[in-house]
Amino acid sequence: MGSSSSGGGERSMALNGLDDGPETLRDHWIAIWMGIIFLVVGSIGLVALCGILPFPSPSLSPDQVLAIYRDNPIRMRIGVLLLFIGTMTFNQLYTIQFLHMRRVEGRFPIWSYTLLCTGIMAALPAWLASLLWLACTFRPDSDPGTILLLHDIGFLAFTFSTLPFVVIAQICYIIVFFRDRTQRVFPRWLAYMAVLDLLIFVPNALVPFFKSGPFAWNGVMGIYLPLTAYSVFMICFMTTVMRKRSPKS
Amino acid sequence: MNLELPQRELSKASKPEVPGEEGVWVVIFGEMIVFSILFAVFLDARQKDAAAFEAGRAALDLTLGVVNTLILLTSSFAVAAAVDLYRKGDAWSARALTLVAALLGLGFCITKAFEYKAKLAAGAAVFDNPFHVYYFLLTGLHLVHVIVGIGILLTMSAYMGRPGHPARQRLMESGGLFWHLVDLLWIVIFPLLYILH
Amino acid sequence: MAGIMHRSLAPFSVVWAVLVASSLSSWRIGGQSELGSLPADLLVVIFIALKIHLIGGYFMELRHAPRLLTLTFNLWIAAVSIMILALL
After folding, report:
1. A73 Cβ partners below 8 Å, 6+ apart?
2. For residues B112-133, b (16+ Cβ closer than 10 Å) or e, as one string?
3. Is B48 exposed, middle or buried (0-12, 13-18, 19+ CB in 10 A)?
4. How far is residue A160's CA from residue A207's CA, in Å, rounded to a whole number?
5. Is the distance from CB of B21 to CB of B171 less than 8 angstroms?
6. Cα separation, B174 vs B164, whole angstroms
7. Cβ of C25 under 8 Å from any chain B Cβ?
8. Do C61 and B19 make contact, defined as CB atoms within 8 angstroms?
9. Chain B positions in Cβ-Cβ contact with residue A189 (cut-off 8 Å)
């Protein structure tokens, strides 16, 4: 990782212009690897949970929905367990985001702290959904109406949850575009990527109105595009944070 | 007639420069891809229910659609001219043209409102036909972009009063690029919904 | 000042005229159902591609842009045109 390469030239190239020591760099990498591992585990859980990756359609009949939970209870429970682990993906990544943004802001880092709070809110729906799906699989022969309701709440929570991400994108956009003028902690194209994500996340508000098509909770605009867009954004963000730049005075 | 574009800087040799800020192309290509996906979904849905979609298409007001197309094309022309004039130092004309473009954008919204009103006069029954669901989705999403674009144009015209150093010129170009994106998307949406069958 | 304006806006004006003509032609072609379905659709899609190419090249100034950017843009035009024709 370049922390002990040759001579003074290399020593002046630090993590994103930070002046801290090799411990900080190591912490960054630990946090990122934690995120990656949790994400992979959570994804495996999601695939195991829903059988194949495509989410069940909101227009399934009640019998089909009940069959999901009754057919493979053990597999679903393992899937939910892994999904719970997956909800831990972003905590440390949001902290990294927060700390680098705080470098940009002055005495009242309003936006950075709002990002932290919003990040916590953003992780909650996935956790809630996991809990509800766990309840569905825990006692598969309980009242069908209850299972259907929990199924609906779970998937709605999981997919109709882009509002915190809208706020996160908005904060990234504000910080990079308007606040980060002198230090240039972040590249400007990151702000534009946040704008693109905003434009992708906002139509997600149509999920409650559709039971099929692209805006349903299993649709391309309902879940797949926002998920992809946000994943790409996080990857780009972490990449720019981890790049080597000489510290600005 | 010489169709060469006015040079970005009159003295420069033709060194290729990215129009606008580099990052804005993330938004432009991103939105182009998002809408392409929606077009694909629309066309796929249409293949499965051709009769209903054709009935919906036939009920559309083609004239209003053409009017909207001409409005957007003209406003794009105005924006392109404005950005170029601003670069050349004629901030007054640039501002006027940007406001004209914003006004035309407003005209687009008003025409759309008339179309929507006519469609929704029948009430929620309009959505029984899946064509109308896609119609409102595609044109509605596009309309959101138009409104955002008008905001950008108004912001641009407000900032055009100040001297145009290169950084500001790039921002103006970027704003203009977003408006051209809006125009470009409508160029596809209009025939897709109103004409092709 | 008016002279400068007139000269530098000439290419934009020409492009605008072509765009308007294409749009009106598409309207005419699409409006008539006698012209067989496939040739009419093909013409309309060609007009779409032409219009977006012109907007990108002249209004968005891609003619003066790095080749990769222009190429990507034109590739998108081609891909969407093919997609429309394929799924028609």
Report:
1. A137, A140
2. beebbeebeeeeeebbebbbbb
3. exposed
4. 6
5. yes
6. 14
7. no
8. yes
9. 21-23, 26
Q: Report chain A residues whose CB lies below 8 A from the CB of B43.
A: none
A78 touches chain B (CB under 8 A): no
User: In this predicted structure, what is the pLDDT of residue A56?
Assistant: 83
What distance in Å separates the CA atoms of residue A62 and residue A72, rounded to the nearest whole number?
17
What local confidence, expressed as pLDDT, does residue A13 receive? 59
Cα–Cα distance measured from residue C58 to residue B77, given in angstroms and rounded to the nearest whole number = 10
Q: Kindly tell me if the per-residue pLDDT of C45 is higher than 70.
A: yes
User: For residue A225, what are its two tokens?
Assistant: 């595009």
Q: Is C1 helix (H, G, I), strand (E, B) or coil?
A: coil
Q: How does residue C86 score in pLDDT terms, banded at 50, 70 and 90?
A: very high
Positions in chain B short of pLDDT 70:
1-14, 163-164
Low-confidence ranges of chain A (pLDDT < 50): 1-11, 249
The yes-or-no verdict on residue C33 having pLDDT over 80 is: no
pLDDT of residue B153: 96
Identify all chain C residues contacting B79, using CB atoms and an 8 Å cutoff: 59
Using CB atoms, pick whichever of A192, A213, A214 lies closest to residue B23.
A192
**Distance (Å, whole) CA A228 – CA A232:** 6
Residue B30's identity, in one-letter code, is: G
Specify the pLDDT at position A179: 86
Contact A90, A123 (CB under 8 A): yes
Which letter does DSSP use for residue A211 in this model?
S
Candidates A221, A227, A228, A231, partner chain B, best to mutate (most B CBs within 10 A): A221
Q: At what angle do helices B62-87 and B166-190 cross, to 10 degrees?
A: 170
Q: Which residues pair with A15 in a beta bridge?
A: A244
